[in-house]
Write a structure and sequence with these properties.
By secondary structure, the chain is an alpha/beta fold. It is built from 24 helices and ten strands. It has helices at about 10-15, 25-30, 40-70, 75-125, 135-155, 160-180, 180-195, 195-200, 200-225, 230-235, 240-290, 300-320, 325-335, 400-405, 430-435, 450-455, 460-470, 475-480, 500-510, 530-540, 555, 575-585, 585-590, 595-605; strands at about 360-365, 375-380, 385-390, 415-420, 420, 435-440, 515-520, 545-550, 560-565, 570-575. Helix 5 (about 135-155) crosses helix 9 (about 200-225) and helix 9 crosses helix 13. Keywords: ATP-binding, Membrane, Nucleotide-binding, Transmembrane, Transmembrane helix.
């Protein structure tokens, strides 16, 4: 029996608040300061890269000198004297390459771990506001795929760019000692090659944003399909969903192809400039040798130095072609990680054990400035140890009252107080210690039942957990599970019924033992027998607690000490069940709108 068709939480969710985006204007630059917390590892990454490239260049130059010397008829003893040096450089280069890959990825994975923590911090600061209207799959793509894309920057870009400047610059200086004209020609082509990623940077940025956005949309679509698979099968709409998935996949493929075409243009330009630069150096060197200005033995050395100068640039140009995706991923990550808290604590000091008396004093609140008030001057009191039921049509503001009491949002006008303390002067953590909530839609983590119960009190001993489960009438069905309290709940607790999930939520709220209890349709998923047993447990749990009931079942409402009727965000009636029926006002009209409830309350009245 219900007073209304559905709880007002859905209506509250429809009033989606604006998202305070914190997107950095230069996302790549925003990635650099994070390295500051890992300067030691970063320094080793740069050093290992330098050792690797220097030894590779050294081995190549020695090899070129040996070839040039052999062609010009140098003595064999002179050539053999350089062979140990060549072998030594090769061995050190191989070891340095292994060292470089190790420390570069160690740095990258440390930074990725930091980014994921920052992402969760950003979500937590804005929850639940930021999550309204957001698709879980898209957020999951940001946390996993976008963060992994940034690995390219930390492992293969930032340190490599510094190494490239040093090594390529050193090669230009070295070739200047061979001949200044060779150095000038080499420098010109190196500068041209370095500008290639800039040519199509704007297009790369746009394509990267489109590609990462499409990946997020596809991820969201896949998760929707997996979570809604039962409904798709039940209604025979599997093929429709597959067609939607195909469209998304084709759109993603189109974005990937566009990105690849632009990237291939950059690759061709880079290869062409590299080949042209080495060819020019080779031609100039040949001219110099022909004119007698350059020793013939130095010809292969000059060509190898030119190739060595291009080598590091070519290596980083590969990741440079991915900067569009890296930039887009960084933008998506920082948009979440840099969210500013919309509920800000005025103080960090919690008041000493305030009396659990809750007062809503002329509270006004709206989720969006452009929309009307969800609460428009609501005023009522819940005395210490009293149970008050909030009733009203969907959208009347019932769940909004619970959200404000938990400081998920702060009031726009008026005040909510606990024991005379304005909630805005109580730190959020202290508020959540004072208030326990049993939501209508219960979420259980894919952990053991015992771990899910301990969410209310991680340090609770086993016996306290079992006692809370007994009070919530959950102990018997838990012990009947295959592994009892150690049974895994499963993803979204799919193996448990709605009533079982709700009883677990009630048990963990009881385990938390807060002085204020909020029950948001806590018995909506229970059958008659279980509801009766649970009502008894709730009545015991309410002893000494201030309880706010958001209810639609008459059987639940009648257990309250008082009833507050909300309409259009205001408390329009207050009283007991019998008083409000006799008054013939809003409450009586709500009951009259439900035939079964009408029969039920007539029986009560006559009795």
């Amino acid at each position: 029996m219900t007073l209304t068709a559905a709880p007002d939480s859905a209506a509250d969710a429809a009033d989606r608040p604006p998202v305070d985006e914190a997107t950095p204007s230069r996302p790549i630059a925003a990635l650099v300061p994070l390295v500051g917390g890992h300067l030691g590892t970063f320094a080793w990454t740069v050093l290992s890269g330098l050792v690797y490239h220097v030894t590779v260049v050294g081995a190549a130059v020695i090899g070129a000198w040996l070839v040039g010397s052999a062609v010009t008829g140098a003595p064999a003893e002179e050539l053999r004297a350089l062979l140990p040096w060549l072998l030594g450089f090769v061995i050190v280069a191989a070891l340095a390459r292994w060292w470089q890959m190790w420390v570069a990825h160690d740095l990258a994975y440390q930074l990725l771990a930091d980014l994921r923590v920052r992402l969760f911090d950003g979500l937590e600061r804005r929850a639940p506001r930021y999550l309204l209207g957001r698709r879980t799959g898209d957020l999951a793509t940001t946390v996993m795929s976008d963060v992994e894309t940034i690995e390219w920057f930390y492992a293969h870009t930032i340190a490599d760019y510094l190494v490239t400047v040093v090594v390529s610059g050193g090669a230009v200086v070295a070739i200047a000692f061979v001949d200044p004209w060779l150095a000038l020609a080499l420098l010109l082509f190196l500068l041209l090659l370095a500008t290639v990623p800039v040519w199509l940077a704007r297009r790369a940025d746009a394509q990267g944003s489109q590609l990462r956005g499409e990946l997020g949309a596809l991820g969201a679509e896949v998760i929707d399909g997996v979570q809604g698979l039962r409904e798709l099968v039940a209604f025979g709409r599997g093929e429709d969903y597959l067609e939607r998935l195909r469209r998304r996949t084709r759109e993603l493929q189109s974005r990937q192809m566009a990105y690849a075409r632009r990237s291939s243009v950059e690759a061709v330009a880079s290869d062409a400039l590299t080949a042209a630069g080495i060819t020019v150096v080779l031609v100039i060197s040949a001219v110099l040798v022909t004119g007698g200005s350059l020793d013939r033995a130095m010809l292969p050395v000059a060509v190898v130095l030119a190739a060595s100068a291009f080598g590091p640039v070519i290596e980083v140009s590969g990741t440079a072609r991915s900067l569009g995706q890296i930039r887009a991923s960084a933008r998506r990550v920082f948009t979440v990680a840099r969210q500013r808290a919309h509920v800000v604590d005025r103080t960090t000091e919690a008041p000493p054990a305030p009396e659990p008396r809750v007062v809503f004093d002329d509270v006004r609140f709206r989720y969006e400035a452009e929309r009307g008030y969800a609460l428009d001057g609501a005023s009522f009191t819940v005395e210490r140890g009293e149970t008050v039921a909030l009733v009203g049509h969907s959208g009347a503001g019932k769940s909004t009252c619970a959200n404000l009491l938990l400081r998920f949002w702060d009031v726009d006008e008026g005040a909510i107080t606990i024991g005379g303390h304005d909630l805005r002067d109580v730190p959020q953590r202290a508020v959540r210690d004072l208030v326990s909530v049993v939501p209508q839609h219960v979420y259980l983590f894919n952990r053991s039942i015992l771990d899910n119960l301990r969410l209310g009190n991680p340090d609770a001993p086993d016996e306290a957990v079992f006692e809370a489960a007994r009070q919530a009438r959950a102990h018997d069905f838990i012990t009947a599970l295959p592994d009892g309290y150690d049974t895994m709940a499963g993803e979204q607790a799919i193996q448990l019924s709605g009533g079982q999930r709700q009883r677990i939520a009630i048990a963990r709220a009881l385990l938390r033992d807060s002085p204020i209890l909020v029950l948001d349709e806590a018995v909506s998923n229970l059958d008659g027998a279980n509801e009766e047993a649970l009502q008894s447990a709730i009545r015991m749990a309410r002893e000494g607690r201030t309880t706010l009931l958001i209810a639609h079942r008459l059987s639940t409402i009648r257990t309250a000490d008082r009833i507050v009727v909300l309409r259009d965000g205001r408390a329009v009636e207050t009283g007991t069940h019998a008083q409000l029926i006799n008054a013939g006002g809003e409450y009586a009209r709500l009951l009259a709108g439900q035939t079964s409830d009408l029969i039920d309350h007539r029986g009560d009245h006559e009795g």
